[in-house]
Predict the 3D structure of the following.
Amino acid sequence: MSRHLQVAVGQYSDKGRKELNQDFHGVCIPREPQLSAKGIAVALADGISSSQVSQEAAQSAVTGFMEDYYCTADAWSVKKSSEHVLTAVNSWLHSQTQHSQHRYDRERGYVCTFSALVIKSTTAHLFHVGDARIYRLRGEQFEQLTEDHRVWISSQQSYLARALGMDRKVEIDYLALQLEAGDLFLLATDGVYEHTDAPCVRSAIAAAPDLDSAARVIADEALARGSGDNLTVQLVRIDELPAPEANEVYRQLSDLPCPPLLDARDSFDGYQIVRVIKSGSRSHIYLAVDQASGERVVIKTPSVDMQASPAALERFLLEEWIARRINSPHVLKPCSQTRQRHYIYVVTEYIEGQTLAQWLIDNPRPDLPTVRGLLEQIAKGLQAFHRLEMVYQDLKPDNIMIDATGTVKIIDFGATRVAGIEEIASPVEQINLLGAALYAAPEYFLGEAGSSRADLYSLGVIAYQMLAGEFPYGTQVPKSRTRAAQKKLAYKSVLREDREIPAWVDDAIAKAVHPDPYQRYEEISEFIFDLHHPSQAFLSKTRPPLIERHPVAFWKGVSFVLAGLLIVSLLSRAHGVA
């Protein structure tokens, strides 16, 4: 029987000896598929006592985090999703103070501490700012996991150094921990932890019938020991961790068989096979007609070689998951599945057109405006991946289609890396596909993980190939597997005697394909902009003399000038003799 993530939660909050409770707390345990995709969220916030509106800040912080976190893309990692939401929450709280009578006194504004625990798969993700605390009780070990952001002036006087809403920008502490069944997490405000200890927590949990009761016992004990602040306690116990087979990918692996090889005129799950488009070591691709709608579609099935590899099948299934989360006119679109499936396969739209590889054969010398237009469309497709924290990793002319209207679409997501999927524990070793070697970024050959800058490199190589018909470093990049070797890679200018290409376009491409990813553009949009506009940074740069950039052209020019001078000299002598 497959296991699922199961937790027990207990919570309690009280104003204590104060007139008003400025703490706020919450927990969200969603159903599938969000339980696997986003996890369980637990959060608490503590408003600062000097402010009369900080309880509103605390409530807004917790409810805003809970609501917005589950609205972020499934493909995003927990870290990116949470930090994105908390940045927005902080900005809103700060703006509320700026538009209130307390804009010049942040100690009276919309300010609160914030601590959250997100449990996804077998990992706990902690987010923290302020002086609430998160502890972990594992066996006999009771460990504080967060750091207090409080500055002590004396033994009696201190102030908060960081909190939500305090400044326009906020730094959030982040920590990821592997979970074990039986782990218990305690989230508490300072009114509780300053007056309790590990034995108090252990005895309360051992004696209470449930965690809600245990949370109340801990808070009551803090009050009995002299706490004068609000009292909030949250307890989260990990009762069962998910087996990796419990996520959707593995469910499909175990429930559905691989399809047989298909031929023209075969009927297959409600589709009529028209012809084989391509067969390779990874997949078989067919043109088919949906017998219900009459629509032409493409069916992709795992190859015979892949069927014995669970890791390869997992990667195959992720392709459709990826396609369904990207909405871009420049990315291949999956077809809606209206019937029950009986096999593992993927159905996508049929693009009537040609690959960029074939287009380049038919158009070996495209003009610069055409190249710019194609690159801009490819860039928009890549940006759709990057917005969802995905790295495409296999950009090459064979994976780019141009339809009859001239629209460019990126196809084949077999190598795409997804941050959110990587967080789900898997018993199957992941496949690291680097794509075609001549288009792959140099950092891949050092064993480093790819980033959006790696996709930018591949786009830069394609730009170079379209203008020069070759590669910026020849075939040397796949052979350069050390940093020392990569530092020796020499970029060959795209400028040619027979092509009208501005020098600043060459500079832009050279930056995009720099061997060091941190020397490239930060964003693909910057590269596309510089392909259309002369960058001042490039124009102000001292360029090598013509003899170094184009020695043949230089000496041809010198010869032409000398020949001209010789002719003039001869003509002068002829006139003198006459």
